[in-house]
Amino acid sequence: MRILIAEDDSILADGLSRSLRYDGYTVDVVNDGHSADCALQLQAFDLLILDLDLPRMHGLTVLRQLRQRNTPLPVLILTAADTVEQRVKGLDLGADDYMAKPFALTELEARARALTRRSAGTSSTLLSHKKLSFDLNGRTATIDGLPLELSARETSLLEIFLSRTGRMISKNQFVDLLCEWGDEVTPNAIEVYIHRLRKKIEPSGARIVTVRGLGYCLEPQNREESVTA
């Protein structure tokens, strides 16, 4: 899951990004509204954490323009001005959640998890496929209840596959989903990570299928189910 943080307080932005990266998210940070608006037009994200009092473009303007482009991206607003009027305005413009500063980091993390689950089309915190299970909160995987040892990259890959079972994902899409701005991860490196993950999940009966020229997908529970691009 990829998150954009639009926050001009560098200390807060750094703390948020560190915490969310520790939770396994890919996180990009901008410090003004114009940069946020540009990033949202150029890159796909799973969640926007948006401060309202941003330089160069107010957060509500960023939100309004996002919704005018019919982008269904979940938006969590952060603001120091916690007034009913401003909350109502933000929600009416299309925000999905609202937090007043100061806030508890653990609560923000929980709300981020809930919004990204909703974005992925699930309310459950557990993804299952054959004998394989993945806990979205703890970011831990098991096969028949036994822990599966995975690297950070492998864990993120598994989450992507399980949330998109039966859907084709290209190497370039994996790069977009896994890598922050400035990361140097090539499509060939993605191929290596997937090869390692494939071997580790084999005992579960889960199968990662390669379609040359198109990409990879986690084979549906029943082979009769179609694979989609």
Task: Describe the overall structure.
The protein is an alpha/beta fold. The chain has eight helices and eleven strands. The strands form three sheets. It has a five-stranded parallel β-sheet, with helices on both faces. A four-stranded antiparallel β-sheet has the order 6-7-8-9, with helices on one face. The longest helix has 15 residues. The model has no long low-confidence stretch (mean pLDDT 88).
Strands ordered across the widest β-sheet: 2-1-3-4-5
Gyration radius, in Å: 19 Å
Which structural class should the secondary elements be placed in? alpha/beta
Q: What general form does the structure show?
A: elongated
Can you tag this structure with a few keywords?
alpha/beta; five-stranded parallel beta sheet; single chain; 229 residues
Give the topology, please.
Elements: E1 2-6, H1 10-22, E2 26-30, H2 33-42, E3 47-51, H3 59-68, E4 75-79, H4 84-92, E5 97-100, H5 105-119, E6 126-129, E7 132-135, E8 140-143, E9 146-148, H6 152-163, H7 171-178, H8 187-201, E10 208-211, E11 215-218
Parallel strand pairs: 1-2, 1-3, 3-4, 4-5
Antiparallel strand pairs: 6-7, 7-8, 8-9, 10-11
